[in-house]
Amino acid sequence: MPNNRKLHTVAIIDDEPGVVGTYKLLFSRHQIPLSFIAQDGFEALEKYSKVDPKPKVVILDYKMPYMSGIETMTTILKLEPETKIIMITADESIKLNAIDAGVKVFLVKPVNLKIIMSAVNNLLNE
User: Fold this and answer.
1) Which residue, of 3, 47, 70, 73, is most buried by count of CB atoms within 10 Å of its CB?
2) In CATH, what number does 5-124 get?
3) For the chain, what are the domain ranges?
4) pLDDT the model gives residue 119
């Protein structure tokens, strides 16, 4: 069986530079390649439509400028239904809406980095 690990990339969509930096460092240390980083939904959709191969996992914030995480995710899933979405947000009130829209893992900030890595690894290995 060929090694498809190179296709198992992660995209980060979050408007907080500190959070993005933490995720970048986390994935680098675990040798998980990044597909792209975007600060809002519009930028994410532009990058997502151009990147090949598509990321297997997308880490997404809910509250971002211009477009919510749920709106962004809905469009991504229309383009590529197999994409696994992890939503990490401080707004627990949108959990059911997020799950109904297609989120695979919903995490509430603050969240332990080990939990994030566990979720990413589980989805990458599905």
Assistant:
1) 73
2) 3.40.50.2300
3) 5-124
4) 97
